[in-house]
Specification:
Elements (H helix, E strand, L loop, with lengths): L2 H27 L5 H7 L4 H7 L3 H22 L7 H13 L3 H8 L5 H21 L8 H22 L3 H16 L3
Helix pairs in contact: 1-2, 1-4, 1-6, 4-5, 4-7, 5-7, 5-9, 8-9
């Protein structure tokens, strides 16, 4: 590949990234946002947006793929296999909160629920099972309850960050403390 081709490929990747990032931001604000508004937010023309994503469904698929990738990255940064499951869950809470507007898309149903099922629930189910084995997660709580508790608290934390103006550090501390106490073995 020539240097010119490398530059063109990099420019295409940056443009695609700008469109997907703008779609995440704009869809989080308004699920019915038009493709034209997304193009404006990405600082590209509609023609350019349609060259990358001919249909709205193509763009939503790219956003879904981005969400899955970012959930996977959050799991990796949280080092889910290290320490007790409860310790890993405490590391995971702030990582999930960093997903930002993607949380809004997950919580509001803009993205299909299967995104959470595919990308998040499997690692979380394994984490909960490990927590029962290592004694750090209450065995009386079933899997759905533990995972539901995490997502409910993430929703509250994200809403608090978006609406109440509470400092991120304080929200993260409250989130981690609440989830930790909610799932702890007696």
């Amino acid at each position: 590949m020539t240097e010119v081709q490398d530059v063109e490929k990099g420019a295409r990747a940056r443009t695609r990234r700008a469109i997907v990032d703008a779609a995440v931001r704009e869809l989080a604000r308004d699920a019915s946002v038009s493709l034209g508004q997304i193009a404006d937010a990405a600082s590209v023309g509609r023609t350019t947006l349609h060259r990358y994503f001919p249909e709205r469904s193509d763009l939503l698929e790219a956003v879904r793929a981005e969400t899955t990738a970012r959930l996977d990255e959050a799991h990796a940064r949280a080092r889910l296999d290290e320490g007790t499951a409860r310790e890993a869950l405490r590391r995971l809470c702030p990582e999930y909160l960093l997903l930002g507007d993607l949380l809004t898309l997950l919580f509001t149903g803009v993205l299909p629920e299967s995104v959470i099922d595919e990308a998040a629930d499997d690692p979380l189910l394994a984490l909960v099972a490990r927590g029962r084995e290592d004694g750090s997660i209450d065995p009386a709580l079933d899997d759905a309850w533990v995972i539901g508790t995490l997502w409910a608290q993430l929703y509250l934390a994200w809403a608090t960050l978006c609406e109440a103006g509470t400092a991120r550090h304080d929200v993260v501390q409250m989130l981690m403390r609440t989830v930790d106490k909610a799932v702890a073995a007696p």
